Amino acid sequence: MNSLLNKDYLNAEYKPVDKTNKSSKILENMDSLFDKLDLKDGAAISFHHHLRNGDFVTNMIMAEIKKRGIKDLTLVQSSIFPCNEPLVPLIEDGTIKNVITSYMSGPVAQAISNGKLKGTLVMQSHGGRARAIMEGSIKIDVAFIASPATDVHGNISATEGSAFCGVLGYAYADSIMAEKKVAITDTILDYESKTEIPSERIDYIVKVDKIGDPNGIISGTTKITKDPVGLRIAQKTVEVMVATGLVKNGMNYQSGAGGVSLAVTKFLGDYMEANEIKGGFASGGVTGDLCDMKNRGLFEKIYDVQCFDLKSAEDIKNDPNHISMSAEKYASPYHDPIVNGLDFVILGATEIDTNFNVNVTTGHDGVIMGGSGGHQDTAYGAKVSIIVSKLFQSRIPLIVDRVGVISTPGETIDVVVTERGVAVNENRKDLLELLKSKGINAMTISELKELQDSIIGKPEKQQEKERRAIGYMEYRDGQVLDVIYEAK
Amino acid sequence: MNSLLNKDYLNAEYKPVDKTNKSSKILENMDSLFDKLDLKDGAAISFHHHLRNGDFVTNMIMAEIKKRGIKDLTLVQSSIFPCNEPLVPLIEDGTIKNVITSYMSGPVAQAISNGKLKGTLVMQSHGGRARAIMEGSIKIDVAFIASPATDVHGNISATEGSAFCGVLGYAYADSIMAEKKVAITDTILDYESKTEIPSERIDYIVKVDKIGDPNGIISGTTKITKDPVGLRIAQKTVEVMVATGLVKNGMNYQSGAGGVSLAVTKFLGDYMEANEIKGGFASGGVTGDLCDMKNRGLFEKIYDVQCFDLKSAEDIKNDPNHISMSAEKYASPYHDPIVNGLDFVILGATEIDTNFNVNVTTGHDGVIMGGSGGHQDTAYGAKVSIIVSKLFQSRIPLIVDRVGVISTPGETIDVVVTERGVAVNENRKDLLELLKSKGINAMTISELKELQDSIIGKPEKQQEKERRAIGYMEYRDGQVLDVIYEAK
Predict the structure, then answer these.
(1) Is A269 helix (H, G, I), strand (E, B) or coil?
(2) Which residues numbered 340-359 in A keep a CB inside 8 Å of some CB on B?
(3) Cα dihedral A173/B171/B337/A193 (nearest 10)
(4) Which band of pLDDT confidence, cut at 50, 70 and 90, is reported for residue B463?
């Protein structure tokens, strides 16, 4: 019921206001901030990862928290990078008890795989994170938003300031749902034009020396492969794509940030240019190379949830066809997100099983070195999801009986392209027929596995050791997809 | 607590998904929509007024509701215009029981003033409406969003489609907080660039023939006065503004849409041009004339919650310095909104009392003909709020002992400028001194009233008739500001 319809308005008394006494959100320093926040043991705090491996904010805030002796925190950080190494001792001493993230690499991932986390690890997709926050499955007490710039009211810009990162797509949900929202920035403007997060979502602003190192935005996963085998797989993938008949005007496309995936994007662009094909949109985490393709007219628009490099962050400043989006708009399992409009997504894998379940979370040693990110979301959304990978590397096979951690469920993966053959999911008979009719020798994944095993030999059955569960991989819709175990 | 940390994940079972079975938000027709909505008697439904007097959507939806016999509804419409005349019989027959709005003119206002509403009338400011929706004091079951265009996912654009209105600032809160959100549109695009309301806020899309008449966006209140007395007041107002010392580079400015207020804007622009002053931002409901001033370099930016005419809606399409904003960002009593950055706001009044309380809700006959809109919000926010009005008209006085409805509380009004004199609020001694030092003969409002009464005579004490309360005027922070009575 609408409470304002039930007021005893005839007997209400009005208390005058004082317009000369307006409060500013800008706080003097961290002490004033933590006084206001009154953060308690057991609270959940969130961070985004748009500054990627150049982020200073998470470490800075966690050091303040450690100083104040607050403990048993749940860290809700959209991704964790090697630069977050200073969090390791805070995990070990119980300052951080639980971790909820979509991607992890580096010392924190290693420490958690080694069983250092006292509580639970939950890994999600980018869309699943947004869904969980918006529906309240994750409750955040304080969102600390690394803000390249903000105006005096708290309108946050990602295209101004020295650590501009272009987009803040992963911080939107936090900014709507967290109990308290703090902009941590090194640049306060009078007023700004391109607002990523509007002032009504921000409670406090704290200015610090530097929120990050802009050069750290470029992370190692976003370079095109130079390996000839990888390039051959990429060429083959474009052939498969063309064979589906979907490479045509208006095609919508995304690729992951792995080296082979990026090579597919390049070769696809060459094909489109040669055949005068103009795509609709490209989406995802966005590289400067993808911006070049848009600027050459190969795609009409880019929908961008995260800039992978400075060139991309530069491009979004001025081109209205380079459009920022929230993680929800991008990939939420509800609300028909942008990923549902994709014709293709090109993705990597460390392992895949004969049910097409994909692992991008742990390496062959069982140590966490990644996570779903948008993998789950785009595999579900795209008409054709394609895994590109070498069939084996140093005698370590791609195709296994059981992947270490199911990161993306097999029923959403359509095709696997390797240097030795292409496998099509049996639930996509339409695709199988199509590829065969175009002369592409597609096989079942079991056949591809047999081929693989015939070359490198069947791996010896490892003695299954009892391992301790440390958390789980969540599917984007909230289901438990798989258990994550301590490594070795 | 975070529910996803407490899952029995070791024993959870995963149920595979079907990616070939995605649902679209686009519904076939109104019948499918109302089946989905399952709207019950007593529900609250909301509409925005960006199509102003050219809106077709409210009437169309209410006719569907009437057809289905749903009744006792609370109508949460940001403003109501003469085009909403078809709602009068629905008020009379109890289809609409309560009305919550920020502005009303025309037959609906007349009918409600005549006591036709069975429930309660609540009138709010634009900022107050956003606050009430966001905090849950208004609970909306279904928000029907008149959408100039939407893409297939439900990303709503206000700059494409034939009834483009530029901005949808008053619909943001509804789109976040309503239980169900429906885009009513006449234009469905594959993909669009300039999103006003993102797809994650939209549940359903229904296509209709026409959502409105673009020419109706220009409403009668947004024309500059031609009356020489009005022009004299406007000139005087600019003198007062200059005397405060705040007319300088970086000045932030807003005016209401009344004829004299718009004349102030024009003369201020002339003064700024002649004196090479470049303002910071102009804000508010925005006219094409204001866009011209920006384009001439007199203001750096425009923050726009609503376009008052097609020229303004055209201007925002392409200029990144013409920035759309939500009602919350504009005017919420919390979160340090844009209005708090204003140096000046120029506003109208039908009546003002000797405590500076202003009525813009009812006419001298007690019939509702307006409402606060942003009046309360900007009066509070601006360093100097100025009421511009003739001191009397056809022997009807501006200054009265008690205004019909207090729409904006006196403690937030700083100056009154009339053709016969300027009054300064006694709580602004700083301004009084400043004006006097610049040779402006400012007086108290009691002195100005005496002057007024000495010319037109003291009005005869009317026999106070017992009148029925029909609702109340809410202050932006949620307080009851005044009671609204039935007219005559």
Answers:
(1) helix
(2) 340-341
(3) 70
(4) low
Three-class SS of A86-135:
HHHHHHHCCCEEEEEECCECCHHHHHHHCCCCCCCEEECEHHHHHHHHHH
What pLDDT score was predicted for residue B458? 82
- Answering whether pTM is above 0.90, one says yes
How many whole angstroms separate alpha carbon B392 and alpha carbon A28?
50
Q: Is the dihedral of CA B412, B414, B416, B417 positive or negative?
A: negative
H or E element that contains B122:
strand B121-123
Contact between chains at A326 and B176 (C-beta distance less than 8 A)? no
- Look at A335 and B4 and tell me if their CB atoms are within 8 Å: no
B326 and A472: CB-CB below 8 Å?
Answer: no
Interchain pair B191, A341: CB under 8 A: yes
Cα–Cα dist B476/B488, whole Å: 28
Cα-based distances in Å from A39 to A136, A143, A179:
19, 12, 11
Query: How does strand B322-324 pair with strand B299-307?
Result: parallel
Q: Does A471 contact B at CB distance below 8 Å?
A: yes
pLDDT, tens digit, for every residue of A9-46?
Answer: 999 999 999 999 998 999 999 999 999 999 999 999 99
Q: Is the pLDDT of residue A402 over 60?
A: yes
Beta strands in A190-307 (DSSP E): 204-207, 253-255, 279-286, 299-307
Nearest to B469 among A10, A334, A477 (CB): A10
**What residue type is assigned to position B374 of the chain?**
G
Span B172-228, pLDDT tens digits: 999 999 999 999 999 999 998 899 999 999 999 999 999 999 888 876 556 888 999
Sheet of A415-418, strand order: A322-324, A299-307, A279-286, A253-255, A344-347, A384-388, A415-418, A421-424, A442-443
Number of Cα atoms under 13 Å in the Cβ half of residue A225:
24
Does the distance separating the beta carbons of A138 and B199 come in below 8 Å? no
- A390 Cβ contact list (under 8 Å, min separation 6): A229, A230, A233, A398, A418, A419
DSSP 3-state of A487: coil
Model confidence at B354: pLDDT above 80: yes
Q: Which residues of A touch B283 (CB under 8 A)?
A: none
A1, A154, A326 ranked by CB distance to B139: nearest: A1
Where are the alpha helices (H) located in B335-374, listed in sequence order? Answer: none
Residue type, A34: F
**Distance of residue A332 Cα from the nearest chain B Cα, in angstroms:** 8
* DSSP state at residue B376: H
Model pLDDT for residues A288-317, shown as the tens digit of each residue: 999 999 999 999 999 999 999 999 999 999
Please count the other Cβ atoms lying within 10 Å of the Cβ belonging to residue A190.
14
* Segment B20-73, tens digit of pLDDT: 999 899 999 999 999 999 999 999 999 999 999 999 999 999 999 999 999 999
Q: Which of A119, A109, A128, A140 is nearest to A47 (CA)?
A: A140
Query: Side-chain half-sphere of A238: how many Cα atoms within 13 Å?
Result: 18
- List, as ranges, residues 205-264 from A with C-beta within 8 Å of B: 250
How far is the C-alpha of A405 from the C-alpha of A389, rounded, in Å? 17
> Taking CB atoms and an 8 Å cutoff, what residues of chain B touch A152?
336, 341
A119: contact with B, CB 8 A cutoff = yes
Centre a 10 Å sphere on the Cβ of residue A249 and count the other Cβ atoms it contains: 11
Digit-coded pLDDT (tens) for A233-255: 999 999 999 999 999 999 999 99
Closest CA to A281 of A226, A222, A321, A311: A321
Whether residue A396 contacts residue A363, with contact meaning beta carbons closer than 8 Å, is answered with no
- CA end-to-end span of chain B, whole Å? 56
